[in-house]
Records
---
Amino acid sequence: MTAVNALLLFLAVAGHTKIVVEAINRLHARRLRESVLKGTRHVHDVLILLFPLVLLWWPGLSGPRLLLGGSWTDLPTFGWVLLGVCWLGAAGLAVSSVLWWTRSAPSVQTAYESNVVDVETRLGRKPLADGPYRWLANVPGNQAFQFDVVERTFRLPGLPAALDGLSILHLSDLHYIGTLERAFFDEVMAASRELEADVAVVTGDVVDDNRLLDWIPATLGTLSAPLGRYFILGNHDWRYDQPGPIRDAMTDVGWTDVAGRAVPLSHAGETIGVGGDERPWMGDAPNFDDVPNATFRLLLSHTPDNLGWARRQRVDLMLSGHNHGGQVVLPVFGPVYSPSRFGCRYAAGAFDRPPTTLVVSRGLSGQHPLRLNCRPEIAKLVLRSAAIEEEHAATAAVASHAAPSMMEP
């Protein structure tokens, strides 16, 4: 019976941790300054560390003495309420873990390829400087100095046939903070150039330390895309420094700022409306009606939390970052920390939420140089038109119907 009691108390600790983490995730999805968020993280740390000790002492070793052969009948009402809430948290943890590990790629994604670039091996050293939290880079198994070069192919029902084969380079969450050397990002840009995408986009969190603004011309400034380069900023660009200098640095090297607006991109006789959404931290939602002749709507939104709005606006493709894939993906539980009001549901990956396809990047860096089972990534998205497949199927059906039967005399 004591072993069962220990298991139940352990589940209470797990559930309590789940509840506290979910609260932190949702607080970090809001427009709160770093000083406030830092305070909430301190509270989080205290609660995570203190609660197991409290349970060990009471009701484990004193009061009902559940770890010493005591009885649950001696547990007072408030104890039952507290543990009941924690057990509900444990049930939620079990459900979210199962959902994460049983998820599958959406049907609109027809192909996925990934190759790893190990920057540490290429350079013969860790590209680590004296920035914040550099000690985390030495955690065993850390993948912060690697990145995945991903290619996803989507068959989208809203893509005009004339745009079939359009490709987009998606970068997000570079976090120039000074902990990773610029050499890491030089390798990222070299791999990005090799992808030769038609369009390039950045979905926010470019610079954490404005003393590193001169990295932008030497990195993002070296990328080109025949149909244009578009960007928005994110919560870190807003939180630590005035975002104006970052916008200026990006536009000075030829990137188009689409924050809070929609602009036309014309190609092959079709018009794509490209919009940018930095809410809740900055600006307003873009107005896609400003591109009235658009036959395809592409939204750059730093957080995937704006998905509901995107669906109401009939956005065809939404590209986001912000959640970093969780940065740490545990073997059983999956990602834990994801600064979203959806928790870890949209930590990273592709999701079909008609009429919108959402792609969430794992990003390239972060405030903390720690990645476990969650490599940084750059992605090339290749868009195929479902209309072409339907046209081919219809043509084949007509040809089959018109062909004479081999059974006729």
Note: The chain has two domains: 2-101, 109-388.
---
Amino acid sequence: MAWGWLDRKRVDSPDWTGFLDQGIKLEGKIEAKGTLRIDSAMKGTLISEGVLILGEHASVEGQIEGNCVVIAGRFDGTIQAKARVEIQPRGIVTGNIFTPCLIIEPGAIFDGQCHMPGSSESAKPVVIPIRSSVQATQ
């Protein structure tokens, strides 16, 4: 059964909070404490205390507030991440990213601005305008 991993998951486990698969369209706000993976279409706000994964089939428009954000699909909007943002090889991000750590894999596309705050609040943030379309070499 495709949902067998849910049966094995402890109810109180913070590891996996949820999964939205292809074919779902959602408009609104989602808040998650653990790992959340989205492979669907969404318009709205995502708030995650754990890891937020936008899978290969995700198409999300709106705002993300999270700890660690991994994008393998398409995102348009604003990302605010406390730990890091990772754009994987087929990921496409358009908009603004606020994070202390940004990872852009070869093949990923990022069109927007990255704001990287300093380690202290008195430090002035570094603003880096980026337009990237790096092709993977084989």
Note: Residues 15-133 form one domain.
---
Amino acid sequence: MKKIIILLMTLGVSFNAFSSFHMVPGLDDAKIKKVEVSVLEGNLMFVASSNALYKSEDSGLNFKKVAVFKDEEVKDIFLDSDLADKLYLATSRHIFEFGMQQRRLFSASDEQIIFTVSKNKEEIYIGTSQGLYRGDENILSWRKVAGLDDCSVYSLDYTKEVLYAATNRGVYAVADDKAKRLFITRDDQEDISLMTKAIKVDCFDQEIIWLGTNKGLFVSRDNGITWNKFHALGLNNLDIDVLAQAKFEKDAIYIGTAKGFFRVDIKVKKAKYIFEGVYGKGISDIEFNNDGEVYLATSKGLFGSKHFASFSEAEASNNILEDEPAIEDIQQAALHYNEVHPNKIKKWRKGLKFRGFFPSLSLGYDKVINYDSGVDRYYVGPRDWDVLFSWNMGDLLWNSYEDDVDTRARLNTQLRLDILDEINRIYFERLRLKNEMQATTLNSKEMFQKSLRLKELTATLNGYTGGFFSQKLREVSPAQ
């Protein structure tokens, strides 16, 4: 993540390209799983947490809890595009319909887990751990789609003629109740390196299919016949959980990961990490409304941006950067203060190289006992000191403490990456916020709120660096 942000800074990505996200209030649950906005009634939206469903009829200003689920977890929701207020909800065990009536449509067996639900051409599709089910909601008669009996179906999307399914064995195209595999993966114990997790038919060109995996983004431009990995600056092998597109942006696709929210510019092949105002990193769903507003379902709540603008590349505000300490200085200070600097491990390894040359030392003080065989008698002598030196020559080749150092090095590296990730996010959000405060006309209430947020970010950086950030800030800009 450090490399992504620094590269974007080097390329001159403007700090005011995106409006800051805000947490949507009114939800009892912090861990939000799914969000759906009606394409027919823009003010209507549904939000699902792990065990509850919420409904808002005023674009998220107020929410009403519609249902609570006990002993089962919400997996997916799907809002009918033909009827504004008809929603299908999948829990781990059941499919429910919410609308003019509320009813249970499907129940899984004890061995099954439901992952997703969708509707296409008057038929409902249910992805489970034991295949794909298809049925008419009015008849409630369900049948399995042939060819997917032994698959776990995680994600569904469709064109006018074909339904595409992302499964643990690859991507399948479903037509006329038959499934054909297009993209092959394996999930046996010998090879679990590549897993398909999210599939998205391009909303501007239905011959293009996007596939999110645990090792980055793949694309097919010929209806799934051939696939290639989509390489973009800043994208790499991100573990992708969700894909989304905005109808007002033809050359962009948005991805949600455990590390946060990204926008991928398809044309120039660059990815931008968007973090301004988003506290939760685990993005489980992304939803755009007709006005270009975006909502993110995260592990820390629901976040929204009312004025979401498209990606732009421009010169960064030089005066903002000149008045701030360099990110490299803050990173180094945080690593030293939290004792996770790589030099710490280097010192340990250097010390181990010389350990074999130093003996083990034992010191004793005890009585001396002698035996006289001529008279068969023991004599107890006076107390005396003894010193013992011993060497283990094998330590010169291999020291058992190297295993301990290797283990601690791995933990140290993971902690270091987590700290750097958080430092980068806070540092650049602070820059964006300063730029926004200087470039935008704000009323007194908005300025007060942004000033508080600026102080909060500053205090967090001081906490990570032991006060070094404010000290350095005064050096580069005494007026602050």
Note: The mean pLDDT is 82.
---
Amino acid sequence: MKKNHILLSLIVATAVSLIVNFSYLLSIWVINDNDSARDEKPRPEIAVAGVVHLAVDGYGYLVAADSTVAHDSIYISSNRARRFGLREGMVITGVAEPSHRPGAHPTLERIETIDGQEFDYSTLFKRPNDTLLAAMQVGFYLLVAFAICLIFTHNVLSRERRAAYFYRLGVGVVVAVVAYMMAPIYDWHAGEIRLNIMTYRVFNSMVMMQCSFMLVVCALYGLTWKLLLQQSETSVEMERLKGEALAARYEVLVGQINPHFLFNSLNSLSMLVREGNTDAALKYIDQLSYTFRYIIRPDGRNVVSLDEEMKFLDAYRHLLEVRYADKLFFDVRIDERMRDWMLPALSLQPLVENAVKHNSITSARPLTITIRTEGESLVVSNPIVPKLTEEESTGIGLANLTDRWSMLVGAQVGILNDGKVFSVTLPLIRK
């Protein structure tokens, strides 16, 4: 997750830059759209010519020198007089716009000549291209937001003290203040792009709002990043502890199997040897060897395929069938299509062992253990034939199995005991 902080910071910075410049970008679109609308619907205009007369307050009138002109005076706003650089007595020609108020003077809209010379509008409108200005604004805030995001995410520790976050916040505030002073804006008075600190008015509410919003969003992003980092490391730690718990439970299971299982197996093997049944003894040794290799396998896998578990069961049941000659039987009905489905290792052994341990197995009343697939589960069942002397049950095997199944599969083992049949349902994992 730490390796992705640069890319994510860049994405967040881009989003922040577009958001803080949204109103500016929208205004460009609206202005261009309005200009197009004006071009499509031209307004009525009046050709005018006359002498400029200015009042003390800056506004003035264009007084026609020729009485044949339709309007003897045209109103000149103080803003236009200042922008056009008009002075008393200048003779100009141009275009006026009729007033929307009845009886009011038309208003000077644009100038064509001054004292007989064509008026050059390029001297007034030195405003840079809107696209260039927009690109500068977006690029500037993108870089600043990216820098602040890196301040909040670079080398962040999940267990970092609160003081460290406020230190990063302080650095972010300093960067935001510097960005406010260095923000490029268009200075209408100078007619050029300047840094905010170089304009005639340092306080700019729009730039301040943009920098403040950028700082707040980046600070929240940094806090969110830290919380996600904590969650990620907590998940990793939980998985590690889960693995250690499974390993411990597996060790308990293996430790429970080895002592008495080995003792019983050696008794059965010695019986075959005493009987002189060499072939059966050799096969028994092979199956016993396979069984122990599976139990103490070095790969440490907690989950295996149903096919692997059934191969282990074949070896394990051979050992039991030799021990309980003609008294213990297995009814195995497995859907071949489910052989590659997964389940926790050593799931069948404790169930078979419990069936053998807690039920009477005699020639008169042999025991049959049924193992079958049903739906998406594996069902292990056996009839309940209580022994005359009940063996004490530790409950470790079944409890271990249900706990491992819950951790590895995320599903519960179904256990049913109706007094006649004991049945355990194991949900399988589709590969």
Note: The first helix runs from residue 5 to 20.
